[in-house]
Hints:
This protein is an alpha+beta fold. The chain folds into two domains: 1-139, Purple acid phosphatase-like, N-terminal (Immunoglobulin-like, Sandwich); 140-533, Alkaline phosphatase D (PhoD) (Purple Acid Phosphatase, chain A, domain 2). The radius of gyration is 22 Å and the shape is globular. The longest helix is centred in the middle third of the chain and has 17 residues, at 258-274. The protein is built from nine helices and 24 strands. A seven-stranded mixed sheet has the order 11-10-9-21-22-23-24. A seven-stranded mixed sheet has the order 12-13-15-17-19-18-20.
Amino acid sequence: MHRRDLIRLAVTTAAATSMQRWAWSATLNQRDLFPMGVASGAPTPDGFVLWTRLLNGPVPGTVPADTPRTPLPDTLTVRWEVAEDESFQRIVRTGQAQALADLGHAVHVEVAGLQPDCWYFYRFMHGDAVTQTARTRTAPAPYALPAKLRFAFVSCQRWEQGHYAGYRHMLDENLDLVLFLGDYIYEYAMPKTPPSYTLARTHTLVAAKTLGDYRDRYALYRTDEQLQAAHRVCPWLVSWDDHEVQDDYAGLEGTGTASAFLARRNAGYQAFYENMPLRASALTYGLTGLGTHDGLRIHERHAWGRLLRFHMLDTRQYRDRQACRVPGEKAQGTVTPQGCLELQDPARSILGADQERWAEQGLAQDATSGVHWTAMAQQTIFSRRNYQPLPAESYHSSTWDGYPACRQRLLDAVRISAPRNTVFLGGDIHQNYVCKVLADFSNSQSPVIASEFCGTSIASASSVPQSRAQEIADNNPHILLARSDRRGYAVAEVTPQRWTTTLRVLDDVAKPASGISTLARFVVDDGVAGPRLA
């Protein structure tokens, strides 16, 4: 589908309006049309996005690959309701939306005109099929100072490497929001030879390369009951990393030919939009100077009154190729400054020049607008991890360590703008890290100007032994905690006076009913940069 037509369809179908009865589609009955559940996201003071996706017949990946499918009609009309109460006696918004084959029969409804800082209930209906009732909320008014915000941040949920028991425990966390930081799906087929990790479950999908492949992958992951429950309990803010397209891709470059990779990337991006509670504007805006590829804007700001503002960064779409990576081939895992001179090139960026300026502008705004906490939410670990004892140096090429000049420019922006409190959040590496963020990581005596919490994976395995993670922490004194041995999520409770991060870890990710415990708890005090153990 032409890019212009995709945008037109997305904008038209997202409008929370009522259609004339004659425009409704034929009605299907006696079918389970909503096996992927529902979701909400992108809360504002007067609304949010509601999402669902219709599917007919067995879910791909749960049956043999050659199982016949019964396609849905090109257009289906879905009714939706938003109410103040769970029994839908006080309905405040209702309407119809079209689920189109060109958008994977996904539905995005952008609801507005609601009260700020309020909880609501919602559901979708078609014929006699009704989704489970779900709950979502609006953000506080722009100039309000809420007493508290509780949110979880999580990433990396490879299907076959673990169950999603962490999401079941999130239901007891009394959350206002979930922040998902990338790798919602993994593009791989099942391994052909027995892997080093224990398979928690299997699927029958091929490696994702086409739009249909990616749609099938999201359909499979979305069938997980514990993931569905977490989506029903509160709104999500979502971003991606690499596995929504291809492992370790960088901007317009991946493995294989350039044209084949670009087609694969475009398919992955469209599927991400179709399966996430994103606004249609994510399709209509991009950054300049990036060519004519079909991009998707996920870098955005989300305010929670004057208490906190999230700056969602995109460290994948606009980045330069990893240092010393041969075009069309895989990236090197680690590089050294001596063996890879390109690593120090000041022009290289993990954000792209335009997004760097956008981030700098946001930091400056927070410094003058009365925002108490600035959350820089992005995909991977931000702080430096030198893998060797000094004076030797070795760094991972795909994290911020692979783009040190870009990181320093962002650090300089934090130092110069001086927002009241800056906290970096990340994922990707399947390990828990807690770090003091230095003004200059090349100088261990540099002042601490921010805090970092990089969360472990919800299910994806780590290839790093705990002994090695501790060695890395010992080589880098600004790292306060490094744990590679546990899966789970983190909960942040933010008040005007304090930010508290609790690292929650599963007993056994291979068990869908796994128990959970607290690994550690860290606090950042208002006006004092750097975390401390609680």
